[in-house]
Write a structure and sequence with these properties.
single chain; about 180 residues; alpha+beta; 3 domains; two-stranded antiparallel sheet; 9 helices
């Protein structure tokens, strides 16, 4: 189960518990109170086909996806250069990087939505870490840990081929 689903499940359990506690106040009043205090569901249910922070809605922890290519390292984006795309909020270090992403998101978005390609090749969705990354075949890949990054580095084409075949099934398990 993905982290986002676990958090929604916990939130749902808390919601049920709160409804029971407020039963004496009347169902409508309790529901209105809880829904007013709940986090926005559009952010909580952001498209999990891209790794998104459940609380902020930020893709890849707010790092600039273009900077991996232009600066050769992860660079934090800023709120001044945000863009909503693919069910997530993407941040960029500068206006030029934002414009490059707008023109070609298919180039700059991490493959498999930021999920680790080794995990995807195994048939599971494991969120990648923007600090553990690699560009292979002019595509950005994020990894869960350094061991999986090393496994990928030994034969990227084999892992990518397997991950490409399994990604549609893995992606289908991510739909809320």
């Amino acid at each position: 189960m993905t982290t986002g689903r676990q958090k929604r499940k916990q939130f749902s359990a808390s919601l049920t518990s709160c409804l029971a506690a407020f039963a004496g106040f009347g169902a409508y009043a309790a529901l209105a109170f809880i829904l007013a205090a709940a986090p926005p569901t559009t952010q909580a249910a952001a498209n999990e086909q891209v790794v998104v922070d459940w609380h902020t809605g930020l893709a890849i922890n707010g790092y600039d996806p273009v900077a991996f290519f232009t600066d050769g390292k992860p660079m934090p984006g800023t709120a001044a250069f945000e863009l909503r795309y693919g069910g997530a909020i993407w941040r960029f270090a500068n206006l030029g990087n934002r414009a490059a992403f707008v023109a070609r998101p298919d180039i700059y978005m991490p493959q498999y939505g930021g999920y680790d390609p080794v995990g995807v090749a195994r048939g599971v969705a494991v969120a990648g870490n923007p600090n553990l990354w690699m560009i292979a075949g002019e595509k950005l890949f994020l990894f869960y840990d350094s061991a999986w990054r090393q496994r990928f580095a030994t034969d990227p084409n084999r892992v990518i081929g397997s991950a490409d075949r399994k990604w549609p099934d893995v992606r289908n398990t991510l739909t809320p």
